[in-house]
Design brief:
Keywords: Signal. This protein is mostly helical. The chain contains 39 helices and no strands. Helix 26 packs antiparallel against helix 27 and helix 29 (about 540-550) runs parallel beside helix 31. The longest helix has 30 residues, at about 70-100.
Length: about 750
């Protein structure tokens, strides 16, 4: 009885011990699918980005090692890291569910399908990571020993997955890695044979076998010498025939690998037909992938593959990317391929321009057929020659004489794109700049072709070259250039920048002729121009026109508006400023003219930072007339008989301002004596007026004598109408003071 009681108490105590509660993992179906979906997106993006590299590495595992850009390698490494992170997250969720021992496990995870979904997605992510790791390892430039270690580990990972699920998803990958390893170690050749027999055996019929598995088997046999080009082994005929049978239904990647395998080891027909179909289907993206895959393959004996490689580098032509081993002279001599000869010419032109361009020209005469015409259309070839001619000539690797020999042949081909037209014009310009007469001939043909988008440019350039030759060619070039420019300015098709350049050049030519009527008409047109900044020389040319037709204030306005364009035009600035200050009273007589006078002050202060004596006098005179300076601070000159009139005039004004009327009257009398000719009657009249005005202010003469002198002036034929009213007002003032 005691024993039973003790046992009862023992078990009661045991049952009374506290039990730790196990929390139920919070697993959401949507979260699981989101993890897998985001990983799948990253994976598929990398597959699309490296489709050509993947195809080339399958076709030539060893020779393709490390042939990938650093930026692409960084991308694939980041992709592996992203997928690995998502796999770890999913595995953590699987572990949490697996460790849960609650009685409701089946109800929460098995019956709902959550556990099956988690395990399925986890396995798929492991397979995806194996595929990404394979790309990553083969893309790195590492030793064969290190690569062998990584690939052997990949096979172990794939075999582990194959034991957990149906191995059909890992069969092709395992065979591919095993074939890759067989390139380094003989033992893996035997392992490939065993794996291939096991894989093909489980399908029972080739019709049921995976396409990628059949391609791997075909490549292995071909690489190990069991399939020679043009000869089909009995054991491979069924495999090859089955792949040919299902070719149209293959995905693009498998089509690419198989068609290249056929071209390398059997014959070109399949690949050529595949290319032809892509070309006719107008699928440039897939066509580009095929060409790039060919460019990544190591030297193949296939003529078609060599042409595809040349085609890729032609389409992606770049001096920095062009490989030296693309073509050889011996191959070119025995192969009449248009694209090969053209690409070889491009290569040759980098070191021997004339020889290279001759090869490119001869390539255009070779008939094109099929997809090759799509890769290198005649227009595309001519476009490249134009571009290279221009770049080479600019780089001073091609003499103008060589350019003249090559270009006429190319120009006959016409233009098909905007760049063609542009290079057509610029090459003609280069030849013309060398003073070769054929350059003007080419420009003339472009100018006469209204459909040519650079027709107006050519007309302007032709006129500009004629302008440069006027000294030696005389009126014929002058009249021809002026006529061309007039027609160009009347054309509604003329672009604004060319119109501006043409207007500036036309103005220069009118200045050269110096016909007063034409200058007057041109000045009227230029006053209506709102913006002359479109051409560097236009403001100065227009200002000179204004000075020539006695509109110096208009010139000053341009100098004030575009000072940077006149930094090297100091003579023109001096002339315009001297003209305005020389007739200051005339320009100060109207409000519109007064506004312009402040431009003079700005211009003089801007340009006369370190003035010569005449410039200092003009600046000081402007300050004296337009500001209220301290007289004592103004510059004073010592006068001699040779002192320029600008300095004498300034000193006359300064003395009057300072109340030194006798000195002022004497200086104005001196200025009057300088202008005793009919052409200067305005200046003479001003000097006589100020002479008498200062005499009156200083009471230097009697009133009767001053009035008599004024009346003599009013009857003088040299006295200008502008000053008569001022003299009459002076007489009235003197009379009132008597």
């Amino acid at each position: 009885m005691k024993i039973k009681l003790c046992l009862f108490l023992f078990f009661s105590a045991a049952l009374a011990l506290p039990v730790r509660a196990q929390s139920v993992p919070e697993i959401d179906q949507a979260e699981i699918e989101s993890i897998y979906s985001s990983a799948l997106d990253v994976y598929q993006s990398s597959l699309g980005r490296f489709i050509d590299f993947r195809a080339a590495s399958i076709l030539q595992p060893v020779s393709h090692l490390g042939r990938i850009k650093n930026s692409d390698l960084s991308f694939i490494e980041q992709t592996c890291e992203d997928v690995s992170h998502k796999l770890e997250k999913l595995q953590a969720m699987c572990n949490a569910v697996n460790e849960y021992e609650g009685v409701d496990w089946e109800e929460k995870f098995a019956n709902t399908g959550l556990w099956q979904a988690m395990r399925g997605y986890e396995v798929k992510l492991r397979i995806i990571l194996c595929r990404l790791d394979y790309i990553r390892f083969t893309a790195q430039d590492i030793s064969g020993e290190e690569l062998t270690f990584h690939l052997a580990d990949l096979i172990r990972r794939l075999d582990s997955i194959g034991k957990e699920v149906d191995s059909s998803d890992t069969d092709a990958m395992s065979l591919r890695i095993c074939r890759h390893l067989s390139c380094f170690q003989e033992i893996y050749r035997q392992e490939f044979e065993e794996r291939a027999r096991a894989v093909l055996g489980k399908y029972k019929s080739l019709k049921n076998a995976d396409t990628a598995v059949l391609i791997e088997y075909l490549l292995f046999k071909a690489e190990t010498g069991k399939l020679l080009k043009g000869v089909s082994k009995t054991e491979l005929e069924p495999v090859y025939s089955e792949l040919m049978h299902r070719f149209e239904s293959m995905v693009f990647f498998n089509k690419t690998v198989f068609s290249f395998a056929a071209a390398i080891y059997v014959e070109d027909t399949l690949l050529e037909n595949f290319l032809d179909g892509l070309a006719r289907g107008k699928n440039p993206a897939e066509f580009e992938i095929i060409l790039k895959t060919a460019s990544l393959l190591a030297g193949s004996e296939s003529g078609l593959l060599a042409e595809m490689k040349a085609g890729y580098f032609l389409n992606r032509y770049s001096r920095s990317e062009f490989p030296e081993d693309v073509l050889t002279e011996n191959y070119l001599e025995n192969n009449k391929s248009r694209i090969l000869r053209f690409t070889a010419g491009m290569f040759k032109a980098q070191t021997l321009p004339a020889k290279g361009f001759e090869m490119m020209k001869s390539a255009l005469d070779i008939p094109a057929d099929g997809w090759r015409e799509t890769v290198l259309a005649r227009d595309k070839g001519v476009s490249l020659i134009r571009r290279m001619l221009y770049e080479t000539a600019i780089g001073e690797k091609l003499e103008i004489s060589e350019l003249c020999l090559v270009y006429p042949h190319i120009r006959k081909e016409g233009c098909s794109s905007y760049d063609d037209y542009r290079y057509d014009y610029e090459i003609s310009l280069l030849i013309a700049q060398s003073r070769d007469c054929s350059g003007l001939e080419f420009l003339g043909k472009i100018a006469d072709d209204d459909r040519h988008p650079f027709s107006c440019h050519a007309r302007y350039s032709s006129a500009a070259f004629r302008y440069d030759r006027i000294d030696s060619a005389g009126n014929a070039d002058y009249n021809g250039a002026v006529s061309t420019l007039k027609n160009l300015l009347l054309s509604s098709q003329c672009p604004p920048d060319i119109r501006c350049d043409a207007k500036a050049l036309y103005s220069q030519m009118i200045l050269m002729k110096n016909d007063r009527d034409e200058l007057e008409q041109l000045a009227g047109d230029l006053l209506g121009e709102n913006d002359l900044s479109c051409n560097d020389v236009f403001p100065a040319v227009a200002a000179e026109v204004f000075v020539r037709v006695d509109k110096p204030l208009a010139a000053i306005s341009l100098i004030e508006k575009y000072p940077a364009n006149f930094e090297n035009e100091t003579d023109l600035v001096d002339q315009a400023a001297a003209e305005v200050m020389g007739k200051y009273e005339f320009y100060a007589s109207g409000q519109d003219k007064k506004d312009g006078l402040f431009d003079v002050l700005f211009v003089l202060k801007h340009f006369y930072q370190s003035p010569n004596p005449v410039q200092r006098a003009l600046l000081s005179e402007a300050v004296l007339l337009m500001e209220e300076p301290e007289i004592a601070e103004l510059y004073k000159f010592v006068l001699t008989e040779q002192t320029p009139v600008e300095i004498v005039r300034y000193m006359a004004r300064l003395n009057e301002k300072a109340g030194n009327y006798k000195e002022a009257a004497g200086l104005w009398g001196r200025l009057a004596s300088y202008n005793l000719v009919s052409e200067r009657k305005w200046l003479y009249s001003r000097a006589k007026f100020y002479q008498l005005n200062n005499a009156a202010k200083g009471r230097l003469e009697s009133a009767e004598k001053l009035i008599r002198a004024c009346k003599v002036l009013l009857s003088d034929r040299l006295f200008d109408e502008f000053w008569k009213s001022r003299v009459e007002t002076l007489v009235q003032g003197i009379s009132n003071k008597q």
